[in-house]
Amino acid sequence: MSMDVSQIEIYKQQVGKVAASLVTSGMIVGLGSGSTSACVVRALGKRWQEEGLRFIGVPTSVETAHLAQSFGIELATLGQCPELDLDIDGADEVTHQHYHLIKGLGGALLREKIVRYAAKKFVVVVDERKMVDQLGDHTPVPVEVTPFGWEATAKHLEKIGAKISIRLKKESKEFFLTDGANMILDCNFGLITEPAQLEKAINEIVGVMENGLFVHCTDEVLIAGHDGIQHLK
Ligand SMILES: O=C(CO)[C@H](O)[C@H](O)COP(=O)(O)O
Fold first, then answer.
1. What residues are annotated to the active site?
2. Domains annotated on the chain, with CATH
3. If I label 33, which of 18, 63, 90, 164 is the partner at 20 to 30 A Cα–Cα?
4. Which catalytic reaction applies to this protein (predicted)?
C-alpha cells in the first residue's frame, strides 16, 4: 500500500496520542522502539510536562531511553520493576486474525520481547500499512544472533527454510549491532502459515538469541488509517 510520507507521519502521531491516553498515573509502562513508539513517548512526554502525569517507563532500547529522558520521564530497569502494567510497542506486520506480529526491523526485538513478557497487557500501535492476512507478506523475520560463529547459525537457519540477508548499518558496510551487541539476520521464510511452530524452531537453533515473531501475545491493536483510529481488542 503506497502512501504519502507526511500522511504516514500524521497517522503515527494520531495513534501515539491515543496510546498515550491509556496510561494513568502510578503505572509501570514498557516503552517500545521505532518511529511509531517514538510518537507514543512524545505524547507521553507532553502529558508528563503539561498534565503532571507520573508513571515509570521501562525502555526497550537506548534510543527510546534517551527520548523519554529528554522529557524528564522517570525510567527503571526490569531489575527495579520486574512486573509492568502495560507495554506499548510498534510492529512491522500484524495479522488481522489473532494479532500475531513480526517485529524487529528497528533492531530492538530481543529487549522488546523481554519487556512484553514482563507486562500484564500488550498494546500494539501501527498504521494501516502494517495489517496483513499472513505474516511474511512484506517483511522478513529478523533473527538476533550472537556474533560468534554467526555463519554456522546462518547455515542452520537456511536448513529450516530461511533466505538470509545480513543486516548492515545504513551508513556503512559494517554489521548492524543491537544494543546488546548482537547481529541481526533478516530471514525470509515466504508466507508463514504456522508462526508458533516457526518461532519455536528458530529459537531452538544454537546461536540464536531471539526472533521477531510475537505469537498469541497481543492484547489490543491501535491502527491509524484513513477511517481514523481503530481500537481492536
Ligand atoms: O520492532 C520494532 C523495533 O525493533 C519496531 O516497533 C518496528 O520495527 C516498527 O517500527 P516503526 O514504527 O518505525 O515502523
1. 112
2. 5-129+215-226 (3.40.50.1360), 141-208 (3.30.70.260)
3. 164
4. aldehydo-D-ribose 5-phosphate = D-ribulose 5-phosphate
